[in-house]
Amino acid sequence: MDEVSLAVENLKKEWDETVSQLQETIRAIENCGKSGKGTEEANALPRLNGAAQDGLSSLRSMQFRLGLLAQQLPTMEEVQSGQALVEIWKEQYQKLHMGLRNANFQAKANIKKAAQEERELLLGGGEESTVRRRNLQTKVGMTSAAESITESLRRSRQMMVQEVERSASTLMTVGMFINLPVVLCCL
């Protein structure tokens, strides 16, 4: 087997691995929001989409490389086979791209549904609602305390800056009085 044929075989293996990983990522995106943790899973969606986009970019690059390698294959039969494979890969890429798009639509619908259920639980009665509200209030309380501390630090910093400016002004004034007699004596 010559170098070009070997490179094509390695590229086929790499393609299959990348397609497999991308299909897993698409399934994960599609299932986003189904477990009932809407807001938590919504935060994972951008990371999953980034991984999927990386996979699609890799596939696009592999298509291009196969197109170049196919033209360099030793026999005309292999060249035609390589070009046919490029077309198959293009179709597979398009299907994966559409699958990713549909998975994102499904994920957004799942997350929206989970958020609605979460909202209903918070507003509804019962023990679970009380626990959720308490947890939410704890988070709100912690956020409020953090904001209060930040504001207090901001005020302290402002007071310190004012004090430094006042001290600098006082030093300049004192410095002028000290240098004044020296200036008058020299005249």
From TrEMBL:
Any GO MF annotation of the entry: SNAP receptor activity
Gene Ontology terms: cellular component: endoplasmic reticulum; SNARE complex
One Gene Ontology term from the biological process aspect of the record: retrograde vesicle-mediated transport, Golgi to endoplasmic reticulum
Stated name of the protein: Uncharacterized protein
Species whose genome carries this gene: Carex littledalei
